[in-house]
Design goal:
Distance between the termini: 28 Å
Helix content: 40-55%
Strand order of the largest sheet: 3-2-1-4-6-5
Number of helices: 11
Strand content: 5-15%
Length: 285
């Protein structure tokens, strides 16, 4: 399945990031804790360059905790400070700004020597669509400054937000990159809803997710959907079994596999399948 998604507003966002990167002191890069590799925009890396950054693994409350811990060690091994948070629960958000100050400590000290004190620190927040960026900002600002939603593409323009703790925060719209050379990356972004469902074959997406769950979280299929003897089934066979178990039978005894796929994706995104991480840290270390 060839996923390619780069509408016009994303081109504008990339330009916006490039135009403002020099005026900020640090970049907070928000990744989805379930897909730390797949939600990392390679074009953002190129733009940020040597700029100080803090990686935030958001949605950690619905990710596999053991895998999240491995990912944090992976980033630290590569010289990048990383922290796991949950924007919906407010988990660990209270230390984000302290982390930023710590990362910028050398720069702050240099300003003091030049007689520059109480300078407001400027943060740029970047991330792919539907990564929870707006919820993160609202919790950080303790108000509803950024629009939120459970679909990608809610934030459409840049927003400067003043924080009471001496920071200025620049919110940017969620942005993908022009083409996913690794189709696994595109697939996993689609699983989490970062790519709009309208451009994807939902049944194929459901089949691929079932194949991943069979290999990595087989108990989930047995516990949530009462599926049995699926070890020898391919993705379509499992999708049919899931539909049969849920009673999605149409005229002629056929299984409504599209409905089964939609239910699977909805329940995965709502964390009803448990705490699942799709990108395995062991693959990257």
């Amino acid at each position: 399945m060839n996923i390619q998604w780069f509408p016009g507003h994303m081109t504008k966002t990339m330009r916006l990031i490039k135009e403002n990167i020099k005026s900020v002191d640090i970049v907070i890069e928000i990744l989805d804790a379930r897909i730390p590799k797949s939600s990392k925009n390679p074009e953002i890396d190129a733009i940020i360059g040597d700029k100080k950054r803090l990686v935030v693994l958001n949605k950690s409350d619905i990710a596999d905790k053991a895998e999240t811990e491995k990912w944090i060690k992976h980033f630290e091994k590569n010289g990048i400070c990383a922290i796991a948070v949950s924007s919906t629960q407010g988990k660990s958000l209270n230390i984000i700004l302290d982390k930023c100050k710590s990362i910028l400590s050398d720069k702050i000290e240099a300003w003091k020597k030049r007689g520059i004190v109480n300078r407001r620190l400027k943060i740029m927040v970047v991330g792919v669509p539907n990564v929870g960026k707006s919820s993160f900002i609202n919790k950080l600002a303790n108000k509803k400054s950024a629009k939120t939603g459970d679909k990608p593409g809610v934030t459409r323009g840049k927003q400067w937000i003043s924080l009471s703790s001496g920071f200025e925060l620049l919110d940017t719209p969620g942005v993908l990159w022009p083409k996913f050379d690794d189709q696994t990356v595109g697939m996993r972004l689609a699983f989490t809803g970062a790519v709009k469902d309208e451009i994807i074959d939902t049944e194929v997406l459901g089949m691929r997710l079932l194949e991943f769950l069979k290999e990595n979280y087989p108990n989930t299929l047995a516990e949530r959907y009462k599926m049995t003897d699926f070890e020898t089934l391919d993705g379509f066979g499992m999708l049919e079994q899931l539909g049969r178990k849920r009673g999605f039978v149409v005229s002629g005894g056929e299984i409504d596999t599209l409905r089964a796929a939609n239910v699977l994706l909805d329940e995965f995104r709502a964390a009803k399948l448990g705490k699942i991480t799709l990108d395995r840290a062991v693959e990257e270390v």
